[in-house]
Amino acid sequence: MSKSEGYFRKIHRMSLAEIHSNFEYLGEGISRIAYGINDYWVVKIAKGLEGLYQNKVELYVYKHAGSRYRKYLCPILWHRPDMIIMPRALPLSKITRCKRVDLRSIRPEPEAYNDLLSFTRRFYMLPEDIEATSSWGLINNLPVLLDYGCTSEEGDDFYDNI
Fold first, then answer.
1. Structural domains of the chain in order of their starting residue, each with its CATH number
2. pLDDT tens digits, residue range 89-129?
3. Structure pTM?
4. Residue closest to 151 by CA, chosen among 141, 161, 137
């Protein structure tokens, strides 16, 4: 077991109150809460069944994205059903007041726009979430999707059966 693996397991054994008192609160959505573990890692914690579902979706998407799509995603470093640990990114929402990103120019690759549209369809993502500035962050000055756990109704049917 690596040093970080042991550390992540230790965090997983902490209560939410311990996590809240030991790490930087970054924010929360309807189903998950995020904390900065340090300058390098973030933990997303499910608040209930919907959060468990979003964690399951993100893990499935990350594992099945392949190199074509994975380059657009913030990596999952460690996971349990109720917790995902990712690299810490600079949220785009801290840089711009725009509510939506322009998928045509968010990434430098010529194929990025078509890849992101294809990714959205293939994994049943909600287009409005993929376009939301709050779903993106910078790692090494490159935009990546931080939140890719929200799905369309068709996606709900698909992910409920995996």
1. 3-160 (3.30.200.20)
2. 999 999 999 999 999 999 999 999 999 999 999 999 999 99
3. 0.94
4. 161
